[in-house]
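Submission sheet (multi-component)
Chains listed below:
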Amino acid sequence: MALDNVSLKIASGEVFGLLGPNGAGKSTILKIMVGILRPTTGTIRLGEHDIVTDPEKAKKLIGYLPENPSLYTGLTTLEFLQFVGKIRGVADDLLDQEISDSLKSFGLEEKRNSLVGSLSKGMKQKVALIATSLHSPSVLVLDEPLTALDPKTRVSVKDWIGNQTKRGVTTILSTHDLDVAQTHAGRIAIIDHGKIVAVGDVESLRRLANTASDARLEDVFLRLTEEKGEEPARH
Amino acid sequence: MSISGSVGTIGVLMRYWVKGRFTKGAILGLVVGEAFSVVFILFGSSTYLSFSNRVGLSTGLSEVALSILLALFLVGLIQSGFNGSGLPVSSSDVDYVFTSPVPPREVFAAKVLLNSLTTVLFGFPPILVLYLRFSAYYHTPWPAALLAGLVTLIFLVIGLLLSADITLSLGHGLGERKKLWRNIFIVLVMVLSLLPITLLIPGIPSGIGEVARVLPNGLAAAVSVGLVSGTTGGLAYLADVSLLFAWLGGVLILGVRMSRQHFYDLLEVSVPGGEKFDKPNQVSRLDPRGKSIWSIVRLKEKILISRTREARAQFISAVFLSGFMIIYALSGSFSSSPTSFLFILFIIGSFGSGTASRWIEKERLWILKSSPVSMRRYVKEVYRARGAPLLLYLVPVIVAVGVPLVLGELSQPSLLLGVILALPGALEIASITMAGGMFFASKYGQSSTDDILSSQQQELADIRRFLFQTIINLVMVSPVILLVFVSETLVTILGSGYLPILAIGLVTVSIAFTVLSINFLLNKAGDAVSKREDL
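Outcome: structure written.
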């Protein structure tokens, strides 16, 4: 998906939501942010580091969870997390403790020595989340973290996101779940056809969409994606 | 349901499966694969005939060799039968065919017919080339080769049916004991097939060779070799043919009887890129304490290889390469033509590097690309982990083959240099083709979460990859082959006094070239991974 003139500034510690229909370009923005895709023009800066020109330092700050995270199915949960921790530069003395704490908080202690390939989808998502945050990143980039999860797993993933934001981690969240966006995100960008249609908190988005002050985010979203403006409206 | 109705249903199923299987990419792949197989068969059979001529047991040895080769095929089918893959099914079969009211027996018939058709299409050209080469050697007419090929095809169909029967039998109380039965079957086939080798020991009664004829592989070998060598005729021969057809009838009837009832739960559904593990719980072996990032990367790769069937595939390909090297050395062709040895080794290597070239499917690019590690270095470490076991298997074989060869050629300095260069050349070629395989996988290989390419597009991409890989790898290894090629002329021009210096110098040059080539290919592979947009 090609992006067109996308410009976003996200403050440290902010929880930022990305909303948009399928194929709007949400995942593309996130992949560019984390350095998986290279932008044809423009820059992406994480604090002082440019993700294109200074990728190693910038990537140390980021924890990324793709929409469909595939894991090394032939490793045990513990091995997988040890491997990810190591390549993300977590010190040996911290790694074991971090893994144990994370497994405990997700109720996966018993699965330490289970092959990742034998875990359920929900468990794999939890393992992927642990892998994303093992190195205590200051920026979390989460692409549809709640897709196709059962209600119980959704609750634990939502709790996890809440805890990260409480810790002051900057979180950029792409989601179809408007409830999650409304609950967690301070500001939301609505993207359609590769362009930012609107950016702001829920109240300002309601005003932009000319909806009632108690309108659901769903209605706001539908209204804004029906009317595609050339320039993004900012509040 | 009437017979005509059943035939109609089987026809419909086969028509759609054929449409799904024989796509443009698959047909192109078939042609490319067949061309490679034919070249390999021509080289391989010529080497074998030189070897058997030297040993002096031409016909008898051919029967034994073919019987063992077919036995290996049978063992593979027995294993897949016990794994539940005797009747290969895809997830779309489960969704659309197994939920339809088509009777199980008709599904069984359609599956067996389609598998047989595919096997015949894939197997017949190289088999025919093999027998044509044999009939040229034995001065028999070409229809004999054609008939021999058909007999071998009957054996292949027997094997497929046997595999299907074994899978169907899993539901008849075999359950927990299936591993035991599988091992008994495999040991029985191998022991009976290998018994005729004991004939090489003086004093062993000749009747022992007949034991192998109990099994379809022994029968097919006896009948086929009999036809191409012109030694057919007599009651024994007729008995062999009858027994072979009895096997065919037996496994067919057994399959038809067992497929009367629902059997779908016995089948293993093949998932592209899906891996199977024997035990869901394992002892964690990746302790990172005190280890560098790169040793952890290598350790991770070794663990993944050992827990999947890749370790077995790697071992088999090393055994295959080693076996070829030994037969080539024993046949006498090595000394007279070390260049052709390297060329044929390249062809085998092109197939053999398949395990290395599949590494990208097991990689998880989102983890790597969102981490601060260097992709160039990462790919090199993966190569080290994957290349080490292959070289570990091959080095002792090269030493074992090389020492007697070098000693035997001491009196002929002009040939000796070629042999000396070709021995490490074998390892160099294996190493370069492996690095080339990794580069092309990085560029064209499908990653685990790549859902953009349809299966047809992926097939075409695979063919393109295979062709590019073969051509570029050939270009990369050609200096190593060329050095061997010119070695005789160099010794002739400079004189045998320069042999030690030439040998040390040229081996050093070829090793240096190999190291630089591998480095170049792996850097390219790392860059290709960095540029990929999929995860």
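Remark: Chain B has two domains: 59-269, 295-531.
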